[in-house]
Amino acid sequence: MDRNKTSRFERLIGDNLGAFRVMLEGAFKDWTGAYDVLMPDTKQYLIGAAESKKFSPFCARLREAPKGRELCLECNLRAAKEAERYQQPIIHHCHAGLRDIAVPILVKDELIAAILCGQVRPESSDWDVESLKEAQRLEQELRIPGGELVKLRDKLPQMSYEQLEETAQRIFTMARFVSQMLETNLELQKANQQLRQAQAEQVRRRKRSEQIEKAVTGLFTLSETWEDLWQNLQQVLKQINDILVASHAVFLLHELLEDGTRTSTIQAAADMPASVGKERTFEHDNLFDNWEELQDVYQVRFKDPIPGTLCWELQRARPATAAPLHSMVNVRVRLKSTIKGLIVFFFEESAATEFNIEEDRATLHLIASRVARAYNNTSVYLAQVIEEEQRREWIRRVSHQIIAPLNGLVGYAGSLLERFERWRQHSPNRFASWPEEDLLRWDNALDSILWTADWAARLTRNLAWMAELNEDRKKLKETDFEVIRNVPNFIIEIARFVQGLAREQGLHMVHVEKDTLVSLNARLQVYPDYFRQALLNLLDNAVKYADPGTNVIVKGTATNGHCRIQVTNYGIRLRKEDCERIFAYEFRTPEARKRYPTGTGIGLPIAREIVELHGGTLTAEPSRWTSAGWETTLTILLPLAKRKLG
Amino acid sequence: MTVNILFVDDEPEFVRAHINALEESGYNVKHVRSYTEALNALQQTFHLIVLDLILPPSDTDLQYGESEPSAEVGLSLHRVIREELGLTQTPIIFFTVVNEIETRHQIQKIEAKFGLSSSILVKPMLPSKLLIKVRQLVGGRDEQENQ
After folding, report:
1. Average pLDDT in the B117-126 region?
2. Which residues in chain A are closer than 8 Å to B100, comparing Cβ atoms?
């Protein structure tokens, strides 16, 4: 007997054990003998009556030997079993010939405990004689010195069968009450256990949902290519696979091709055997009808698929030692009510109960919606990329087509101008009859054609720049940058292109301060085409907004490890609050719009981007009033020597 | 000695002034308009090639518009001139509207393979500027006659 074990009776009665003992005492208050409660599952007695004074000396002597105790227990257990069989108390002759009562405490007809009492001699003399013989037999069996047991037996009280029966029924009434109480307790315990299990299951499912939710956050990052998306999805499926204890998972992408065929292709597969190629594609009208092909794709064999349900029993062609796959759960991924794909989780038999479609519906929905969203985001992004690329390509093509004829214009005008100047130099007589102002007009006209064409080309390049900059910038290398040996000439050459506009605007000139710019010789390192564009934009801007009769001045210095080039004009006012805004695309101050209504507002932003590409800055200071008018200066600051690409 | 220049440009109307300027300076200019015309012309010897990058593959493409002129054709012609025809001593001036860095790098890569530096003039450009570049690379007519 292991007293450490708790019997089912004790577990069921729980905290009511004390009340039960009291009830028992009450039931046996008129009983002079001993009583106890036997718990058959642990073979233990509840009260321990054998140690009490009420225990008969006869039985106590019998139980002094271990064999005696054993015989008593066996007898009591038999009696309890009989009581269970009849579902009634029984009065029996024990192994020692005494009359005992066994009253069953039943829970759902099952014996939980037996209340035992008795240890009396039969009243009838015939029975008593038989009982004496039993006692004598026991004496021999247990080697109890002769006569001792019999003497003790003689002292036992006698009780009639009727008396015993009356006692049994009375105890049984109490036992039935206890049974009901235990049954209620059992129901309660079951209910509590179910509740605890349900709660634990809820907690487990919630934790699992949280884990899955965490896993699918991997799909929040935008995948910029389809390959990235499928790789991403594969990793997420792997994580979900591990959480769900699934065997493996695949994502099938459904597509409707131009020829009307429907195809499904495995795009992502987690833990799938290498023998199942990812690129498997098959045509179908309805995925769920095409059993043969599905089996080929997964290299599985279905048995008795149940139409209309989401789970099938299936056997998989694997080594005999591996457990067959038990079930398959499909999660449909929808995009705007069209089924875009299918995620399929395969489960081993042992893990089949891990997943319950009804209860996990919300989790499945989460997975499907995230996958759908990730697919949609990539799709939209790539469409935008294609559109952007097509737009850039269109702008590039159009700008080339515009610049080509402008080249013709520049070519013809340049040639005419050069020829005209040569004639004036070498054949002045040819123009002897021409009035001076006609000559000047002719000269100016040709020059105007030249700079207008060039200006148009520059504007077109600005537009092309906006389309190309981000892509082109990535390709710039250190070797694309040149050191400008003669900075004054470099800038004079650029300024020449705006002299025509300056003249049109009534300015004196664009004045390049050679003396100051000389200090930048061999220290200015730029990408010539881009930097030329930036300077032209600055000069263009300065000339457009300068007042007639003024100059635009370009000067430079090399100080504190920087090249500084400044463009100053005297014209419209630049207020402090607009000093940064003028570098935003399409922003124009009210004064600028008034002075030059058809401006585009892209020249300065592009100039700044180009300067920043060189690792420098382009800034504007608020205008200050001078005798020549509002003086406005824009400053380019570039680091000297080699610089990193911006 | 006459200096022969091959001028490859599919839109002669826009480079007429430049070709005239070269001819007036004493250079013998042959003008072709497509990739295939250029390859045919290169059976002769030229002292310099002026190459627009945006070209159609052939004159029939030009006539019937079967394929768009593109910079790929001009770059391909460049590669053929250097690598297949082996004309590594003939200077090439790239006279083009195309100004992308990627394109420059492709040109520089091939020229560098043969120890050459690339000459890229971006349109629009004055004829006199083109003339200056040509003289730098092959000399004027007087210089050639004195050699």
Report:
1. 87
2. 396, 468, 472
In DSSP notation, A614-628 reads: TT-EEEEPPPEEETT
Strand partners, A484: A524
Q: Is the peptide bond before B124 cis (omega within 30 degrees of 0)?
A: yes
Residue pair A35/A117 in contact (Cβ under 8 Å)? The answer is: yes
User: What are the residue ranges of helices labelled H in A340-473?
Assistant: 361-426, 436-473
Tokens 């220290």 correspond to A523
User: ipTM, 2 decimals?
Assistant: 0.86
Q: Taking CB atoms and an 8 Å cutoff, what residues of chain A touch B124?
A: 403, 406-407, 409-411, 453-454, 457
3-state secondary structure of B50: strand
Q: How many interface pairs between A and B have CB atoms less than 8 angstroms apart?
A: 75
Structure confidence by residue, pLDDT tens digits, A325-382: 555 666 777 777 777 777 877 776 655 555 666 667 777 788 888 888 888 899 899 9
Strands A110-122 and A35-39: antiparallel
Disruptive mutation site among A396, A400, A530 for chain B (greatest number of B CBs within 10 Å): A400
Q: Token match 């059976």: residue?
A: B43
The continuous run of DSSP H or E covering A634 comes out as: strand A629-639
Q: Hey, are the CB atoms on A404 and B99 less than 8 Å from each other?
A: no
Q: Are A414 and B128 in contact (CB under 8 A)?
A: yes
Letter string b/e over residues A363-399, b meaning 16 or more CB atoms within 10 A of that residue's CB: bbebbbebbbebbebbeeeeeeeeeeeeebeebbeeb
pLDDT digits 0-9 by tens, A390-423: 888 888 888 888 888 888 888 888 888 888 888 8
State how far the Cα of A52 lies from the Cα of A60, in Å rounded to an integer: 10
pLDDT tens, A309-324? 323 333 333 434 445 5
The dihedral region occupied by B141, where left means phi > 0, alpha psi between -120 and 50, and beta the remainder, is alpha
- Kindly give, in sequence order, each residue whose CB lies less than 8 Å from that of residue A115, ignoring residues fewer than 6 positions away: A24, A35, A36, A37, A101, A102, A103, A105, A171, A175
Could you read off the pLDDT of A629-640 as tens digits, one per residue?
999 999 999 988
